[in-house]
Amino acid sequence: MGGDKIPSTEDIEVFIVCLEQQLEILSATVQxxxxxxxxxxxxxxxxxxxxxxxxxxxxxxxxPEGWEQLMTDQAxxxxxxLNMQLVEQLRNTDAAFSLGEGTDGLVCVRFGMVTADxxxxxxxxxxxxxxxxxxxxxxxxxxxxEIVKKGIEAATLDLQKENEERLWQDGILRHVxxxxxxxxxxxPPSKESGIKGRSLNLxxxxxxxxxxxxxxxxxxxxxASNPPGTRSPPQPQVQTPVxxxxxxKHSRSSSHSSEQSQSQTVPTATMTTTSPxxxxxxxxx
Length: 285
Fold this sequence. Notes:
Layout: H1 9-42, E1 46-49, E2 58-62, H2 73-93, E3 98-101, E4 107-111, H3 120-170, H4 179-186, E5 198-201, E6 206-209, H5 211-216, E7 239-241, H6 256-265, E8 270-273, H7 276-284
Antiparallel strand pairs: 1-2, 2-4, 3-4, 5-6, 5-8, 6-7
Helix pairs in contact: 2-3, 3-6
Keywords: Lyase, Pyridoxal phosphate
Cofactor: pyridoxal 5'-phosphate
Domain PDXDC1-like third: 36-139
């Protein structure tokens, strides 16, 4: 033994107490594991993840309804991203949650060891609740992205169609170089014949023409209250509804929380797409 210090009676007692505590935690984890697996299997959104060598309760993966039929490479990436965000949110509540990886290479929520008084059902319920919030938040952003994309496409088509109609209404001679200037001098075009820009109303999900914006020199919000005695501006001449397709990339279930979050967080900003002719018209008028 040489110069090694012989453990005192107090050191041995401390070691015994620590060992007993660890054995209690290990025993409680083994007892709760059966309940843990049973509740995960019964959950429609949780999947049990095989994690050999992990001494904790185990791992679960949050899978939105309908995703298992769409397990492409892109879907797997989105599923990994969703579960990583889920673990990040859970760790703000309890540091016992950690990020793990199953034998299939996909990330999961890893549960560590628990004590005898741990409510496993409550922990799994927390995972499902936070997972739904993360899922609906991601779904809302995808919906907004799709609306903006469709709005840009609709605005481009509207401007192209209006430009073609204007070409036929004004006559081809007005657009011939040099000779068109003479025609415009002889018969000036109407100020109302210019091509209107387009604005995307995110609140209403509608692409609108911008004649009111230039006429009243401000962004007009639908449903805004007007002072007494003032006439409300007319509706835009062109209104093209823009809505995300019903059959999205993934089949996700809607919930009351998603409807409530969307009704509270939908921005009221507008994105304006304006043609050069409309800008020139607004400057000269």
